[in-house]
């Protein structure tokens, strides 16, 4: 078992959650229980699954939770695009967050591969 807070992928995904919470505060009130909540849940799922997986007893289990985190970051990737297309997010902010999502996703895929190779 390792301290998930020491993992760079967890640190970056945690920062992404904080940014998602920030941008969704500016969404229209009508999105209070819609897209903003879905984006928050998907973003929180990423570092949560990293934390849970790191606390499991084996690399195989951790790889499973890394795969779930990949699914959540992919979900967030689409939701961010939708927010931009709905006009809730400007193009530059979208681009910035999209790059962060891509980086976290790439790191998660690398983590999963490493864990699978070790199991």
Q: How are the SSEs placed, and which strands pair?
A:
Blueprint: H1 8-24, H2 35-54, H3 59-85, H4 91-118
Helix pairs in contact: 1-2, 1-4, 2-3, 3-4
- Estimated helix fraction: over 70%
Q: Would you state the CATH class? A: Mainly Alpha
Strand content: under 5%
Cα-to-Cα separation, first versus last residue: 14 Å
Q: What characterizes the major β-sheet?
A: none
SSE string, helices as H and strands as E: HHHH
Using the coordinates shown, work out and report the CATH topology: de novo design (two linked rop proteins)
Helix count? 4
How many beta-strand segments? 0
Tell me the Rg in angstroms: 15 Å
Short description:
With 119 residues, the chain is mainly α. It has helices at residues 8-24, 35-54, 59-85, 91-118.
3D architecture notes:
It is built from four helices and no strands. The chain is mainly alpha-helical and about 120 residues long. The model has no long low-confidence stretch (mean pLDDT about 95).
Give the key terms.
119 residues, de novo design (two linked rop proteins), mainly alpha
């Amino acid at each position: 078992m390792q301290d998930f807070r020491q993992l760079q992928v967890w640190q970056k995904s945690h920062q992404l959650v904080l940014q998602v919470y920030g941008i969704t505060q500016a969404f229209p009130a009508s999105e209070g229980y819609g897209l903003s909540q879905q984006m928050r849940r998907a973003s929180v799922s990423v570092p949560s699954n990293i934390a849970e997986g790191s606390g499991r007893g084996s690399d195989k289990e951790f790889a499973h939770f890394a795969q779930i985190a990949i699914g959540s970051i992919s979900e967030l990737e689409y939701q961010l695009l939708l927010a931009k297309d709905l006009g809730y997010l400007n193009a530059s902010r979208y681009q910035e967050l999209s790059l962060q999502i891509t980086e976290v996703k790439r790191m998660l895929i690398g983590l999963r591969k490493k864990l699978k190779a070790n199991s």
